[in-house]
Amino acid sequence: MIVLESIVPVLLLIILGKALSQARFFQEGFFKELNRLTYFWGLPILIFYKVAEIDLESEAGFGLLYTMLIVIGASIVLAYLLVLVLKVPRDSIGSFVQGSYRGNLAFVGFPVVYFALGQEGLDLGMFTSGICILFYNTSSVALLILHSKEKSDNPLQAVWKHGFRNPLILACILGFAVNLAGAEIPTMIRRAFVALGQIALPLALIGLGAGLKFDELKGRIGLSTIAALINVAFSPLLGYFVGRALGLDPTSLKVAVIFLSCPTAVFSYVLAEMLSNDGVMARNIVILSTLLSIVSLVLAIALL
Q1: Which residues does residue 264 pair with via DSSP β-bridges, in sequence order?
Q2: Which segments cross the bilayer (predicted)?
């Protein structure tokens, strides 16, 4: 019953988004603007006030962070090894590797953790998500530039533009700054932030569902499937054993495995195209990993 109560609300919101999109209930372009609201305001506000209030001395938080970073690093290494073994085309390497490790913590991880573990799990997840989101964005930009079809004249400028200017990263940085300064968010402002943060999670899932376009799957499906499986199968499995080895408590371990079961971030497809990489493969990985992650997330909640 706990599994159903945790995963069914997530699936229903994703299905609602897809149904509304298919039925053209809203005017064309509505969901694009909805995602902009969620991406630029809802999720950043949620991350900001949560990070500003977390306990930065939490041992559980650091254990979760170490687990995530170890597994992310291992996934990158495995992806590059498979690039050599499978002879991934040069123009697809960036998209393949990025899709193998970059999880959608904000749009999928936060809602699933919240429904599965409540406020305690979400607060714990916020501790590590700030660092992970920062790493995801900066490392993705760097490797996409490295494997770009067109060499960038100023790689550092590209990292700044597409990495550090990301609203989720800025929210993390500001949240940590407020936390370290020991400042408190005024009650009247915090209540507004909480209200906006509460709508961010369901809107993120509705927007995700609306954006799923299964008819766009094409190109190198086999390689895309392998990258997706590294992200949503290899990563959570390794995360379980790494978390156990590091002595994570049950809640932290479940948060780690849920986060590592998340599908590839939707923005990775946009970024791949912007930085002259294989956009078709990047889109395939997003779609396939989203479908496969349903199994991983159900198992993560059911077995832990």
Answers
A1: 103
A2: 6-25, 64-88, 100-118, 124-146, 167-186, 192-214, 221-243, 255-272, 284-303
d(CA 142, CA 157): 11
CA distance 23 to 186: 43
Closest CA to 99 of 261, 289, 240, 304: 289
DSSP string, 10-34: HHHHHHHHHHHHHTT-S-TTHHHHH
Structure tokens at 27: 């005017």
- Whichever domain contains 223, its CATH number is 1.20.1530.20
Q: How many CB atoms lie within 10 A of CB 4?
A: 12
**What tokens were used for 170?**
């800025």
Q: What is the number of domains present in the chain?
A: 1
Is 240 strand, coil or helix?
helix
CA distances from 157 to 153, 165, 183, 262, 299 (A): 9, 11, 32, 29, 41
Give this prediction's pTM. Answer: 0.85
Q: How far is residue 251's CA from residue 233's CA, in Å, rounded to a whole number? A: 20
Determine the Cα–Cα distance for residues 173 and 183; give it in Å rounded to an integer: 14
CA–CA gap between residue 214 and residue 46 (Å, rounded): 30
Residue type, 200: A
Distance CA 90, CA 29 (A): 34
Phi-psi region of 183 (alpha: psi -120 to 50; beta: other; left: phi over 0): beta
Question: Do residues 268 and 286 touch, judged by C-beta distance below 8 A?
Answer: yes
**CB contact set of 55 (below 8 Å; sequence gap of 6+):** 61, 127
What is the token pair recorded at 189? Answer: 């402002």
The pLDDT confidence band at residue 236, using thresholds 50, 70 and 90, is: very high
* Domain range enclosing 251: 2-303
User: For residue 152, is pLDDT > 70?
Assistant: no
Mean pLDDT of the chain: 86
